[in-house]
Amino acid sequence: MPPEAAIRPAPSAPNLACDPALFTDLYELTMMQAYVEAGMAETATFSLFVRRLPKRRNYLLACGLDDVLSYLESLRFSEDSLEYLASLGQFSARFLAWLRDFRFTGDVYAVPEGTPVFANEPIVEITAPIAEAQLAETFVANQIHLQTMLASKAARVVAAARGRPVVDFGARRMHGTDAALKAARAFHIAGVAATSNVLAGRIYGLPVTGTMAHSFIQSHESEAEAFRAFVGIYPETVLLVDTYDTLRGVRRVCALARELGDGFRVRAVRLDSGDLAALSREARAILDEAGLGHVGIFASSSLDEDAIDALLRAEAPITGFGVGTKMGVSEDAPSLDIVYKLCTYAGLGRVKLSTGKPVLPGRKQVFRSEDGGRAAGDVIARADESLKGRPLLQLVMRGGQRTDAGRDTLDDARARAADELAKLPGALRGLAPTDPPYPVEVSARLRADQEDVIRRVRG
Amino acid sequence: MPPEAAIRPAPSAPNLACDPALFTDLYELTMMQAYVEAGMAETATFSLFVRRLPKRRNYLLACGLDDVLSYLESLRFSEDSLEYLASLGQFSARFLAWLRDFRFTGDVYAVPEGTPVFANEPIVEITAPIAEAQLAETFVANQIHLQTMLASKAARVVAAARGRPVVDFGARRMHGTDAALKAARAFHIAGVAATSNVLAGRIYGLPVTGTMAHSFIQSHESEAEAFRAFVGIYPETVLLVDTYDTLRGVRRVCALARELGDGFRVRAVRLDSGDLAALSREARAILDEAGLGHVGIFASSSLDEDAIDALLRAEAPITGFGVGTKMGVSEDAPSLDIVYKLCTYAGLGRVKLSTGKPVLPGRKQVFRSEDGGRAAGDVIARADESLKGRPLLQLVMRGGQRTDAGRDTLDDARARAADELAKLPGALRGLAPTDPPYPVEVSARLRADQEDVIRRVRG
Asked: Which of the residues A1, A176, B152, B442 could staple to B320 if both were Cys, CB 3.0 to 4.6 A apart?
């Protein structure tokens, strides 16, 4: 239906990582050409925010900024990309030459990773010549959306586990390889203990971990033989006991302990099916009776924050959780209503009036007030206001280069998340929706600006 | 909790595409080492299948095989990867040397991309020395899961649109860059007309398309000026009319048509908010009255198959749909219960008995019967059976090399999907769950094998 369609044969050996510059919606490029052709080079600010929180989220945990800054720093159009764009037949030689020299030269204000944020609060604001800021929309939204959504989900799972370690087992069912890698990173920020994803461990320096699969048990003549073989190589491993019959599996672990004597150093058994509350209690009793009180019980199998919460409310003696799909795809809220909206161009505030989709004009700041060490309420204000409370948005990139504030490490972000989450009102950290929600206001001056701009564009 | 945890600092400039061999769960590698150390090199078959369909899916559209075959063909451990694995302190020099020479040498049977499949039907079966087949689990499941889930969702959206073009607008909210690229590919197979994702267009040779964003309108002095500027460069474009007031926007398009006379070649207006049924009717009337009966109405804004179906049942005069998030994350079913299970090792069928998680032993085939050109039922059988109907699984890789059947093009897959979907009973192609579901049986011989193996492992 839309007209700018063009097809070109695929290259034979695609390198998916080759060209992040092309990871953009076509209209960003057609709009950029229109800006460039018209000489519209004035400064724009775009604001990235979530319009409303999913029903089962009392806050979001901001995440993904580091990838956004790396993208902006290295944004270039390769000759291959330019050739592809030329083949689409809608870009002028002049615009393609302009793209060849493209660099991102703007400023970025952002909420640091690991900070809780709420509806309508800017997470990232990009200020740059309009064509530069326009191009970034697709990638910036994609990464902040993914990582914020996943960190926010994981924070709930970690809270439900009440100090017991949560391990990410989700790689096989997350949405593609990029999601699985970024998830492991976001989960680390949210307090997850380790990941099974080896490449994520390699890239981000995360703790990697794992147990064993049913296939290992199945490939041996018997479960006992499989246990013996695995423990021979990995004495401190976790043994998966549910392949044939969970409680018989636990008894085989006890038999192995008798057989190995002091050489028995297995850390835990793993339950992966059935009624985890009942089985964990029975397994605990069997292990305790065999003098294996130090052997933990690790549980997995379709877990999420609700299942973990229910298990621990039922006092299931589980010492750690492997969590896969439901955390990995944020099953109950697999998307956020995130948008990237123009709010200033050429010195004037900009809004749209589309039904149900309001925009706050101009560069903004969020001030968070505390009361006795607890976050008590936020005010979204103009960037040039000085209000009570701590400003959340920081200058993380200036003129296309990261500032010191833009060089947070992953561990900084993890520590911040732990710290900031502890400051939220207790109810917000619970699983149930809070009513009323956390208070977020718009400052009087920003509201007045919005009304002025609405009057101006209504004409 | 599990013991094999190790941390190593992240490299400074991660290249995410560097090492697909490390895109695996740690336990695959620890199990491989155990197989290798024990000399367990016999042949295994692993079967990839979906245990049950999501409530709102009458079938799944198999997708993702091409990426699986590329991965298996090129699977190598780089020196960098081996060094990282060595740093984890749990792999022997002998095993790392074995990994250095690793190649996938196995056979793969698979259902071709674009084929509808049902619960428990193998989508891919990998037969190889057990360590080789074990390693592949994480990546193979990740890609088939993602692409099958997305193609299955898109097929519903395309069906709901009843021949009107559906365009993929989802890149900004899909789960990461890999998901957004693979989605565009999967959507193409499922019959989506085009994507806005430029990199996907580049890599897969897909039609790329787009309209304009609110920011373009907002950045101009007036909507009329923005329309004039965009049409000056892209005469056959689609104009977004809801930035300030949808029907005034439509009237401005009519005014532009009067102004440009024969030079007016705009193809459609785009509605992106509000009551799309009512607005499309009013827009149609305004356009028709202005003699613009040939100008289409393109709609977007939180669309999915249900919304599109409701609009078309209400006879909304919409000529094309832009669909983003809800299709892009498969919002109503953001994961499938996909598993990769050992079913043969060293010539013996293998199963597990875990509660609610049965496995069919041995290499298998699926026979699809037709009745008057309509798919009438499937039988899951032993690979060596010859039953009535068409066998769905084909040999796509032999000894680590693709066969001709493994060289399907994307257009082959798209044509197959159109063809095979047309053969499904009509009710299955509808949006409502069918009751009873499509009939899938297990052959008597396979059922007998399963019982034999269960008896054997129960001991």
From this structure: A1
